[in-house]
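Collaborator request, handled under Task 6.
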Amino acid sequence: MKTIKMKNKPTPCLAPLLSIAVQPKGRLRPCCWWWGTDSEFEKNHNIQSMNFQEYRKTALKTYYEMMEKNEYPIGCTKCNTTANPRYESYNQQYPHLVGKTWNEVKNFKHLDLRFGNLCNASCVTCNYKNSNYFGKVAEQGYYMAPGQMPDSEESRNKLDESMIWHEDPKVIEGIIESLEDVDYIYATGGEPTINPTLHKVMQHLIDENKAHKTTIEINTNGTNANQKFLDMLSNFKKVVMFSMDAIGDLNDAMRYPTKFTQMEKNYQKYNDIMENSKDRLMITPTVNMHNWFSMADMFRWINENNAAIGGRLNVLHLPVWQSISRMPQEYLDIGYKNMLDVETVQTTHGRVLKTENIVTDVKRRLANTTVYKKPVENDQYESWEESLDITRKWFTSRGYDPALTRIPELLNV
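Structure tokens returned to the collaborator:
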């Protein structure tokens, strides 16, 4: 197994000791930052081949014992940066377990469950791998942007087969058996709030009187405010990341077929169950070329409605055709100015963020041209012109005016 030496890691990473992460297709990892490889050692590391405990006793134990010698698997490369890595976040969350040996910790504490692609929306920033609703929309004849649908029926069927691991009764049983010491669950999908397996996990913890000691963090599209689900969620410590990309019709176009008027109501329903002092509900927009000129409007809506935004904007880099790195600098500058004009925006627990700090962070990230790539001349899907053409087709196909984006070239379509 290939290894790397890690910088400033005096104790082994807690991820393999405490955590397991399941990707939408069932691949098993120590944490969500794990890159991994196609090595012989990892080839069967998926939920279809082994349960959580088998993975812990084999792969995770091996990784942790390597880390005790400061020999980190190459899958840990992403943490070998100056960014705030998962290494640090686990140490902060579980300081009493830092430096413990393998035999001193018997069970999982942290689960990262990404439940396939079961979803009820087809957002412009997403694709079939993360939402099977794209299949329904494609069958209805709507335009699909590059990469949003599998390139063949065979590929789609193969993908579908890999995405339903969470429906297997043995898998569900294995997850529930691993909950004994778990105190933190991150769940996404797809849309996690409509996933029956998450409901079963939550109900088990409620029945075992462990819900009040467990944090559920969900990344939701905000469409499901079903009272039964909210009643279950109210038993837990909660972190809810509420995806909303714009205000009004622009949000409806970008997050088709959701409706902003309903999402406003649903946000309030979630807010009504935020009873614990550490509960957090935050709006988490995905910043891209379509909402760049409207981010200031969202900030104003958040302030006017006593809502909250996440502490750091999610600035999209893939797919490249809709990244703001495609946009001319003069357009970026307009967006920066619009945000700065708002001055502050509310975040969780009554705090405020200065928009100048948000702008500085976005600029800093765009300076990383390895991630936020500049347009490539004469390269299909990489040029600004191609981005505009795809946007026109996406919006008009769904009955929306591309001028909603306020992109100058689209104002007179």
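The cover message to the collaborator said: "DSSP finds 14 helices and 13 strands in the chain. The mean pLDDT is 94. Please let us know whether this matches your experimental observations."
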